[in-house]
Amino acid sequence: MRTKIPREALLMLTLVLLAGNSAVFLLLAREEPAHVLTVSFLDVGQGDAILIEGPTGIELLIDGGKDRSVLRELPRVMGPLDRTIVAVLATHPDADHIGGLPDVLARYRVGTVLLPARGTDTPQALRFAEAISREQGAQGVLANAGLRLHLGGGAYADVLYPEEDAGSLRETNDASVMVRVVYGETEFLLTGDAPEWAEDRVVARYGDRLRSDVLKAGHHGSRTSTGEALLDAADPETVVVSAGRENPYGHPHEDVLSRVRASGAAVLSTIDLGTIVFTTDGTNLTTRSLDPGAH
Q1: What's the whole-model pTM score?
Q2: Range of the domain at 157
Q3: Residue 262 domain-assigned?
């Protein structure tokens, strides 16, 4: 059985193989395309949830936080009547990244679910798997390096990590999916909870091709991520920390904040600003908070 995504919202969703690399083409139609890319770091407490809306209206949700908080934030950036998300990507199966995704799948029609290669059998992971099985017509795709998601209007998201050996890695964080989003001259580097050694592996492979205007601090600002090598290669203007206020882990760690400041980048945190929204026309980049002073 298949659930049809409304034709007026979704024109085409295909998987193609190009030059040995998988690419997912995600094309949505809007009556009046905004011709801007929006990347919203949602305030979901101690967790990650990032909504990307391409220039033609394609929406990609990366992670969903630990609970239903994501359902509070999504309508604020998508609009209350939008109930279609073309693709959902889970960077890894930790509770603070996938805990809210079953609720997303229950409320929104999702065409593609991009999955990490390194799984687990925690209650949250099993609940997520059950939710995917109920999403009739959704396609499941492994998010390995080489996958490109076309977001419309020339924007795209490249999966940089992990490689195909991810299933054999010891920890779920070790296989956390890293994604680089590009629109024109503007780039965002999103590293999930990948540890510093995995960052170094990506730096060794891509070098200065990692340069990005915005870098999401790895693992919510844990001291074991966002190393100097990544900061040097990405050379971001802004580093975003997605974490909860007074969280028990001490995120973001002062060592990370010191490294970021030494790199010359500014630090923005959902702890202080709530949901943080970046908008770019491919050249100019603007930033705003939906909840200035909320915390």
Answers
A1: 0.87
A2: 10-279
A3: yes
